[in-house]
């Protein structure tokens, strides 16, 4: 290298400035090597390939199953693995070479909202390096545009409404979901002039739905998470103005040329189109 990459002090060692630069580039170099090996192997017919997927919860429940089923039916020789992680962690896994495709989402920027910092979100240690919108250097394949929907107990006074504004729920107890969605809902409420009373929080969407159905509070969730809502105890009411959520499949540029990855992306796009066409089962 011509310059030290480690500085030793007794039994301890730390990276020098040159070492930090080398470490920063190592991840992308390894990812490109892995992609090159898989592409060459596919061309040579030495192996069918392997695709490592990571997805957030509602994507795992809706978009992923039909995509995997189609992939297996068409190419049973391609191995596909799946793990779950919310976008900050999923994006970090993609950058670190721990997956080939990451399903992720992001909400539009809100005017007047300060940038996210670790101090502002102590519950999310990856916030400063893996913001939901930090897709720089990644290839984003649009899958669908989701929207936020209000969940109300069947006995709520607004259960029969055709639409609602967040301020209509300012005096209610709220049940809030995953950290990324929770942050965005809190920002939306702040723009509407109130702070939601967050007595109950959980990363599990079925738990949110169950708590609302039991009359423990109200919630606002992405419509993609509402594919199996119990119709007797829950009412879904559209939120106005509409709050969109962009859902994409992310990959590294080096993985774009891997045949198995390209095929998996194709099936994810097809599955996403089906997910958009299928309405939620709970009554409006």
TrEMBL record:
Organism: Streptomyces kronopolitis
PANTHER family assigned: LYSR SUBSTRATE-BINDING, TRANSCRIPTIONAL DUAL REGULATOR HCAR-RELATED
The keyword DNA-binding appears for this protein: yes
Keywords, sorted A to Z: DNA-binding, Transcription, Transcription regulation
Family designation: Belongs to the LysR transcriptional regulatory family.
Segments traversing the membrane: none
LysR substrate-binding domain sequence ranges: 46-112, 133-272
One Pfam family this sequence matches: LysR_substrate
Matches recorded under InterPro entries: LysR_subst-bd, WH-like_DNA-bd_sf
Designated name of the protein: LysR family transcriptional regulator
Domain of life: Bacteria
CDD domains per record: PBP2_LTTR_like_6
